Amino acid sequence: MTFSTIRAALQAGIYKVINPFVRLLIKLGFTPNAVTLTGLILNIGVAVLFVVGGEEGNRGDLRYVGWGGALILFAGLFDMLDGQVARLGNMKSTYGAMFDSVLDRYSELFTFLGICYYLVAHHYLLSSLFTFIALIGSMMVSYTRARAEGLGVESKGGLMQRPERVVLMGVSALACGLSSAYLGGDYKLFIPGVPFHVFETMSILTLPIAVLAVLANITAVSRLLQARKALDAKDAEAAAALVAAVPTPVTAPVRASAATAAKMLTIGLFFCGLPLANAVPPGLVFPVPTGVTNQLFYLQRDPNINTVIYQLNVNNAGKLDEDEPVHVFWIRYGEHGEHKDLNFIQRKFAYGLSAKKVAADRYVLKFAAYDKVPFYLQKTSTDNAFHVVTVINNKQIVINRVYLRIEGGTFWVPNVKYIEVKGWNAATREPVVERLSV
Predict the structure, then answer these.
(1) Under DSSP, is residue 397 helix (H, G, I), strand (E, B) or coil?
(2) Lower CB density within 10 Å: C or N end of the chain?
(3) What domain range includes position 432?
(4) Is the CB of residue 135 less than 8 Å from the CB of residue 161?
(5) CB neighbours (10 Å) of residue 324?
(6) Are residues 327 and 421 located together in one domain of the fold?
(7) Quick check: pTM over 0.85?
């Protein structure tokens, strides 16, 4: 039997106990939001009780802690009541769910505020630090779930969800207050040879809070990893659907999207490129790269002949590097054909590519300068070799060359006339040259 199964069974048992009271609240006219607001007010009372205990009580007087624990449990009951009132009273609403979540966060913050204040006031500084760490974990548990759901995936579960946190704090504080009546508020346990006490009455509250601090943050991290797995699967599914749809003719609006992508890509590229001239130097002839093994395609642009090479990244055994399947580097024809890696700025913001594997021998590629329109690295059926493909004007094109035509402008705002994509039609193997106006 798993923890989730036990938790669900306990929750169902509690609901059976409180449902008669829930129906009474519904008959009295209570709405779910009113129940939630009542819970918030009670948790503010918890904070006030601990603050008063910090100011009026002394270090050995733990009555305020006990009463605070009892009030935490009573206020926590309303966390369960509001949802049941909404369900049994058929009063569920989207805003009600948001209202409940927001006020629950406020309630928890007020509770931690009161406990932290009490501990600092009575010089339990280490324990107050753990309480603050527990507060961080509690907020992140809630935030990771909310953020994941905002991105369309679920991220639930964990050992320290809100009901567990409320019960642990409430029971430990109540037990601390009750124990002080029997042990005494200043009780300390010493072990021979240890120069400090290893336990005191206050430890009945502070030790569970330390456990809460650890487990709440573990829960937040586990939810983050759970969300990552779900989001990666969602992205892979979407990318696989895009790749599967590549050979399918697309509608006219794709031209506009490609043109927009080209414009953004060009601006990003030239932010990190070489200085621009006002026009192409007379008689400029672009070389065709030769002798580059496993070349996929290359990129050239005015006003010089330096070329960016996109090369299939394989090791000496001919195996593709799945983490970085494409190697990008310069051939500096203006510097005697020197091969040179991209610098950090060029790699991260301009000419670099990111790759994500979506299937066997199939990757989605995105330019660093613009990642809205993907290209695809995949094996084609014609030669069973890797190529980079995209779709322009209803044609699936295997890319050989990308050329950016510049006529004047400035470094920051180049006057880009068009982007030319050269390759061959994947369906007919006929040469293709497509120009995208910018």
Answers:
(1) strand
(2) N
(3) 253-437
(4) no
(5) 12
(6) yes
(7) no
